[in-house]
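Hi! If you just cloned this repository, the fastest way to understand the data is to look at a raw example. We've pasted two of them here, unedited. The first protein comes first, obviously.
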Amino acid sequence: MKFNPDIHHRRSIRLKGYDYTLPGGYFVTIDTWQGEHLFGEVVDGDMQLNLLGHVVLHAWHNLPNHYKNVTLDAFCIMPNHTHGIIVLVDAPTRHGLPEIVRALKSFSARRINRQRGTPGIPVWQRNYYEHILRNDDELAKARSYIIHNPLKWQGNNTQT
């Protein structure tokens, strides 16, 4: 279907007027394109990463090497999505959350497509979910959710 601006509206889910370069914690969920199970499987409540899952894990751990204002917290990879906490710290050069998530998606997608022999094929959904972690209680809840996510997996195509 050809793009029609009267029908196709891409509304941002970001908090209007919020500066996503501000130091603080951000809970992020990124889904695979069309919910495809790409990264391994959950076996008895434990996520078993395949090669593509390890590509994503490597891209996650590599983010602080590219962005000096990034520290990483809890992270989990599920068969068709990821959850993570990105903490932005004050630094002379501040990159915003959207740029950092874009980098994670593009670094991993290029390597995944190289592995699969599928250049240019989408790996990730265009958008992502984020929640600004405003206090220690929200941070603790987000960490718990991430850590226990594989235990809740039912093997379906929906995210948990």
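Ok, and the second one:
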Amino acid sequence: MNLIEHAEREMRIAGLYDADSDYAGMIPEAVMKMIRPFAEEGHSGMSASLTLEIFNRLARYKTLTAPTCDPSEWMEVSDMCSVEQRPVFQSKRDPSLFSNDGGKTYYSVDDKERTIKNSSPTKP
């Protein structure tokens, strides 16, 4: 069984083609629009894993490298955050990252603890 057959079978078993499924059964065709060209690439197990990991990160607006403190990577959004009494910056590279010091340190709204992390130095 090839990848295309596998994907279609699994989505049918999961009921994703059913008219009462999410988005009225339109999700499988959207998935197949990505599966077909991926299957044609003929990846090995290792290259497939690497390709999928990179695609997954990029499709979710995640970065491939750590954010830097380069001011061009951050935009001030203080006027949108009425609760904050200090400047608030949002990463242009990953919209889930926020900073109160222009990008020198940041936290992710996806992190429940909102751990403060240090940005990488700007690249030369």
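That's it. A detail worth noticing about the second one: The first strand starts at residue 74 and ends at 76.
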